[in-house]
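Before relying on records like the one below, remember that each one covers exactly one chain. Contacts with other chains, cofactors or solvent are not represented anywhere in the record.
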Amino acid sequence: MAENAPKAPMAASGKETPASREHFASRLGFILISAGCAIGLGNVWRFPYITGEYGGAAFVLLYLVFLVILGMPVMVMEFAVGRASQRSAAQAFDKLQPNGKWHWFSWWGYIGCMILMMFYTTVCGWMISYVPQMASGMFNGADAAFAGAAFSGMLENPAWLIGWMVVAVVVGFLVCSLGLQKGVERVTKVMMATLFVVMIALCIRAVTLPGAAEGIAFYLVPDFGRLFADGWSTFGDAVYAAMGQAFFSLSLGIAAMEIFGSRIGRQRSLTGEAVSVTALNTVVAILAGLIIFPACFAYGVSPDQGPSLVFVTLPVVFGQMPLGNVWGCLFFVFMAFASLSTVIAVFENLISWSMDKWGMMRSRAVIFNAVLVLVLSIPCALGFNVLSGITIPAIGDIQSIEDFIVSNNMLPLGSLAFVLFCTTRRGWGWESFLAEADQGEGVKFPRWTRLWLKYGIPALIVVIFVLGYAPKVAIWLGLA
């Protein structure tokens, strides 16, 4: 593979050029890092509680359907744009369509990744901070009131939140400063391997708890009646949630996957690579549920607790287990690694974009983006305490506002842009996309899906976008 070939010498200036562009050392590295970018809090935090809200296994099936018909095709497109251009989004669209019509989109990925990190680093800091807290045994025998007070106390402490946010940022950029192969790829491989070992250990412990069978059945045996608990409205909500989860869990639309496509060779078809990345991403989401649902049912805890499931409900569950501090610590090691893998991957996007756009050396790009992320992440950390009064009706605090900008706007609209770029004559075009996607051994992209990609996926993206705004607009207009 080209990824295994010796790296071309760096330009005399020390800046990366097309000839000296660093590639992954192995195919496994590419798959693990791409999956690590997608595997984050959307999988191990959001997926379990949404599944709990919408009835378990029946919702999982809906999610898998939309993952195949919506998520994977867009991922292939991002990979294709990156590999064909051998550039990040900073220059990819100009290179593939030099007429200038897509020049504006070069900034989309950088801005989207930056806003994502402005709140994601704070939440990653929460995960890291809970590792020593769980290990200390502070939640042994704790009830929900104690766990809730502990979580609230953390949010009310600005120094604590900023301190752990800084830890997440420093760790992420230190890894990226070592380079793609020696830093990002090497560390992510170890992190992902550890993540899977910890997950399997936690799964074995959870499914062997007394009373866990009910949770396993809830999670793995479809009961479509739950999807219609309140009639068609419940089903509609579940379908929208499944579409959104399939879409957002792969980190599509802000060129987060495009950059990794730019650092691989043409020995493997991109459809096969997207299947591998999506499968790994889905396995982690499914395993996360196999940890959470059996444990919740074993201890009589409702699995539909929303975001508080991780920081309030599960510490209570672990606190009731024998050796609960060990299992709880391992769970948050898993959560911390899942979130850090995303942080490292997105930081690599910011760094590569800066190197391509401004011709920076990696060391300078690391320093520039590290300072920028640190400064821009402070408002989110303060948004739970000092700046808690800053809110937008129907959206929420600073973290929620930043999340809304990315999740409800930049991800769907960015994905729509990738689809239009790869399927229309005004962009790169269908034949050019297909030729790039099919280069190499492996699964070929189905040509017969062109109409679905050109019309069906944009329609779904518009639905996701509109339905995301509808309840908020209703509140803003005083209709709800």
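Confidence is low (pLDDT under 50) at residues 1-14.
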